Amino acid sequence: MTNNFISLKAIVKNFRRLCDPSMTCFEPEALGNLIEGMDFHKFYFDNNSGTRGPKIHTTLLNPNVHLMGDEGACI
User: Fold this and answer.
1) What residue stretch is flagged as signal peptide (predicted)?
2) Which residues, other chains included, contact 65 with Cβ-Cβ below 8 Å and sequence gap of 6+?
């Protein structure tokens, strides 16, 4: 477990070094939504314990909503 933790810390350090903090990307976990910045990836690094714990509650703080007619929207 300790070796895994040290290895993960090295991966995170390299990830931060190699990526621009204002990056944008599409990730499979985001289900087609545009990811802006590194907070999304930090969430996955921080919660990669390898064990299934209690369900994690996620709150969208700044969603981009596009109205698609009178009865629909794309978030």
Assistant:
1) none
2) 73, 74, 75
What does the block give as tokens for 54?
A: 């209690």
Work out whether strand 24-26 and strand 73-74 pair parallel, antiparallel, or are unpaired: unpaired
Q: Taking a C-beta distance cutoff of 8 angstroms, is the pair 4, 50 a contact?
A: yes
SS3 67: strand
Compute and round to an integer the Cα radius of gyration of the chain. 16
Q: What predicted TM-score, i.e. pTM, was given to this entire model?
A: 0.48
List the structure tokens of 22. 């204002």
- pLDDT tens digits for 28-64? 888 888 999 988 888 877 776 555 566 666 777 788 8
